[in-house]
Amino acid sequence: MKQDMILILDLGSDQNAQLAREIRALGVYSEIHPHDITLEELHALPNVKGIILNGGPNRVVDGVEIDVSKDIYNCEVPVLLADHKGDAPWPEDLEARKQALSNFIFGVCGAQANWNMENFIADQIELIRRQVGDKKVLLALSGGVDSSVVAALLIKAVGKQLTCVHVNHGLLRKGEPEQVVQVFRHEMDANLVYVDAVDRFLDKLAGVADPERKRKIIGEEFIRVFDEEARKLEGISFLGQGTIYPDIIESGTKTVKAVKSHHNVGGLPEDLDFELVEPLKMLFKDEVRACGKALGLPDNMVYRQPFPGPGLGVRCLGAITRDRLEALRESDAILREEFAKNGLEGKVWQYFTVVPDIKSVGVRDGKRADEWPAIIRAVNTVDAMTATVEDVPFALLQHITDRITHEVKGINRVLYDLTPKPTGTIEWE
What we know:
16 strands, Rossmann fold, alpha/beta, GMP Synthetase, Chain A, domain 3, 14 helices
């Protein structure tokens, strides 16, 4: 393996992600793992040069203070304790913190600053080949950044052993199913199976308003579709997923409660005989994009708008109806078109519309009209853990409002969401 690794074990810290990024900023790869990692699991990780036991405010779970096994303390790898068992917490001063990390990583552990995307890709290709061997992989390919980068990695690693499945569940943005087929089947020469499952998904979601139930239904149905496709293809042993580290954090860890569940976190149903391949699960969003660039993916794919696995299902608030879903799709297309025309495409990290299941009184054609509002969200972020709101010119917001209210059936108001993350999340559900 080309990269040295510093292993962070979560002993209740709320700064694991920050710490991982600080270590990577020093040029050394880092991963975050649960406190109850076994010695066998530790030895399976490549090139671990040091271990940080990262304590913090969530150190008590079910009334018991958590700790690693004695085997971890006694392993031959250097161990640093931070805010654990009476040891000092990390310095608040950033320079002092950086110096403390440097002393441990380079001085005590002797790690090399060899973390970069080229080495990461080389390591992941080796790990994928070791895991997959000569067997076949099935990948859910939405066409978003995460699944696209995973597809590119898997194509480099195992070539035609990969089959990509694109499911049109009716919750994609305008024109996306057609674009996915064009890019991946015709331009990248991937094995691509297109599945039209619009009615299947929307029928399952009918009348379901709870956001967590919607996410679970969409996620479970995805798995069922892939299971069916795998049976048709014969010999599928692995399921590729574009899980990234913010997905894992927000879905909850052993020491931190969930913010919201992600359909690609938590493993697979017991009746599905697949093994997961998740080469991006320790990367943050900006690192995924850097990986895509290093893999040679086109800019319009690498910098494509982030899109959640459940698609427009998390932006059509409440129980999904086909008419409101179509209003959402059309309003979102107008927003994306106007942002591109006005130089905001590529400048703003994520922008989209949300249509809630409420109506307000408006006037259309001189008559009372009870219709939905469209809510515009435009945010910037580095790692998807925090986000700031884009200061969109008021004149542009007025123009977008005029277009949406006149061109989209069922929308009579447009609102702009000014809430950063936290206290809000990037998505509404």
